[in-house]
Amino acid sequence: MTDNDEPIQTELFDDPFCNALDITFDEVEDGTATTRMSVTESHLNFAGVLHGGAVFTLADAAAGAALSSRIGPDASIALEANVSFLEAVDVGETVIATAEVPHESRKTAEMAVTVETETGERVASYRCRGYKF
Q: Which residues belong to any copy of the HotDog ACOT-type domain (predicted)?
């Protein structure tokens, strides 16, 4: 990460919704980002496993950070998003979302995110497109 990225990092770390879910930003670099969340009781759904909305938010935060690392904060908005849930996650596990920007045009970008446990078990795949202002 370069000194020029510091305002992006600071803004991302201050995301109120991510803070509410205890999502942290491990790494934000040129077109990539990694976020993580330790699963607690407050992240569970009625079935007692990690809520899909929490997984979506973790992946969405990584995708947004990856794009923001290229174009700056507050310079894009989501156009569409899709998540595929692959495995359930229990309390005590940590999930890590790794995002990249595989395609970018003048006004849009595509982000791809893989969500895994710390042991490398893939739990979700996420793809989205964003509009660049």
A: 29-133
